Amino acid sequence: MLALLTAGVALAVAAGGAQDSPIPGSRFVCTALPPEATHAGCPLPAMPMQGGTLSPEEELRAAVLQLRETVVQQKETLGAQREAIRELTGKLARCEGLAGGKARGSGATGKDTMGDLPRDPGHVVEQLSRSLQTLKDRLESLELQLRTNASNAGLPSDFREVLQRRLGELERQLLRKVAELEDEKSLLHNETSAHRQKTESTLNTLLQRVTELERGNSAFKSPDAFKVSLPLRTNYLYGKIKKTLPELYAFTICLWLRSSASPGIGTPFSYAVPGQANEIVLIEWGNNPIELLINDKVAQLPLFVSDGKWHHICITWTTRDGMWEAFQDGEKLGTGENLAPWHPIKPGGVLILGQEQDTVGGRFDATQAFVGELSQFNIWDRVLRAQEIINIANCSTNMPGNIIPWVDNNVDVFGGASKWPVETCEERLLDL
């Protein structure tokens, strides 16, 4: 249609040029105007008048010029429409790519990050739906504008029908894309809900497992036939003795332990009271020797237990002159005095297995944590005789502590520490 109109314009101009030649050196400048505007922007060359009326040739020329302006306007409108269609097609392609990438991303991932959940895809799809609605409104506006221009320009009805069919097809494509995106939104919502439920189920399973480990295994042969396992150097794995200490003027503390941690096995046990976090502490920190702290006073003990085997450790102390003794596997390896002399052990504190306390019951330091296994932690309110310690170490007698006995219902574990059945004497014979 445009080709025919252009050919007509060319013939009309040629015919007009044959009758009236333009003024030499003159130039006509024409600009596109809406149909209802005047022709002031495109002056016509001077035409001879016949009785005050235009000749048929002049009328034809004027009609051709007006038709030419209409064709120019329609070409601009069609160009704008094509640009809008290209923009719409590009946005639809990006929408499909984004939605497809989201769907593929949701299906490709295979790990849960414990609360690290993906961004809500519903928000993305809603934004795309709003953008598509805006584009649809623009298409409707273009359709209305084209219909108005077509009516004003007197375009043929078949051309208007072609434009309407094209716009109708674009609108149907747009509606299909919107429906597909709505389906994708529903699918992504369902996948997100399933992912959240799976994550919650995993967390609940882990929580139940931690609870079971903290509760410990109660199926022991006897109440004292268990060990506390502290496999990691952290600030949250520990055991806690439910009972506390009375005021003490002497004590003996014995326990079995096994560790191969390096450097230093950490803190097998600590006792803290209000105002003094280091009331009683046994610690091997870094490359330092094992130390016994009482009321924050220090004595170095000649003990060597980081070979990964079970060892029986006993420490005795009395407030009189601060006398202390250190036994390993029933043998006395060291003794000394002046360790917090005449200082009674304060009552009402907290006994922790595996961590050094900076405040009562807390502020643990992972670098000072014990790594290994503990068992048969007993405390007496007197200094045991050497033969008694030997009998305990070689398993010839069973003598629980009269202040703190090693029994299952007196020990709680936290943070992933666990209690397991063990016969320390049998394990010790295997090590030998």
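The above is record 1. Record 2 follows with the same two-line structure.
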Amino acid sequence: MSLLVLILALALEQLRPISNRNPLYLAFVRGANRLERNLNAGEYRNGVYAWLIAVLPLLLVAALGYWLLNMASVFLGLAWSVLLLYFTMGFRQFSHAFTGISKALQEEDLAAARELLADWTGQSTSELTPDEVARLAIEQGVLDSFRFVFATLFWFLVLAWVAGPAGAVLYRAASLLQQKWGGRDDLFGRFADGVLAVLDYLPVRLTAVGYAIMGNFEDAIYCWRTQADRWSHYSSGILLAAAGGALGVKLGEALHQDHTIKLRPEIGVGEPASADYLPSAVGLVWRTVLLWVAVVLLYSLGQWLA
């Protein structure tokens, strides 16, 4: 059942990609902002209460809806799981940006490539060189593919047998709350940071292994072991190092931003990033998705034959 849900959700997302600015996401973000305004008194426990208020009702709706619909009809339970997995994934959100940036760079339209990258990442891109645009696009694509595809799929698969699509809902909500509340010095967002760190621990490493298997295994593992801790965020460093090694491309390094040179550690190995590597990066993500599908298929067959 999980395999069928996964395939149908991926197919639906390819046919009709959903924007991260859709009404459901925007409503959740507005609710998160309202909770922060009303509950943020500068204490850790306030962040815990706000997180639970934001997430627990969604998990209850996802799980209870699955149980009730599945009791009425297996097909209704299947449709519910496909629908919620579809709304929590976003493969096309980054692959579409990849395609646009790659096309603009191939046509030597640097202004268009910079604009597309700025819309995607929210960073200043007006001073980036073509190679820096390509490098930053690969980095953002690697991180977004993890957030919107691999981590979401991992938690969907872990909880699918007992709670249907609740795992995917849990991860997407936790990720959005960390983006809104986390990464700051105040205590309110510390719980959101901690929850996402726990949820990320296993899928980050499984995704990196997938990149290694579907790319240059030796270089990917070498970069992971020797370079990941250079990055400011270790989990992101694991993903970028493994992807850079698997692709044979150098990531990180300096960027021209905000009228200065932003120094960053070199990560990956091989040739400097360029527009030629953008299709390869998308291909690596797709191959890794297919690897996960194959693993789920083998597991399902094993369960069926046991």
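The CA atoms of residues 176 and 202 lie 19 Å apart.
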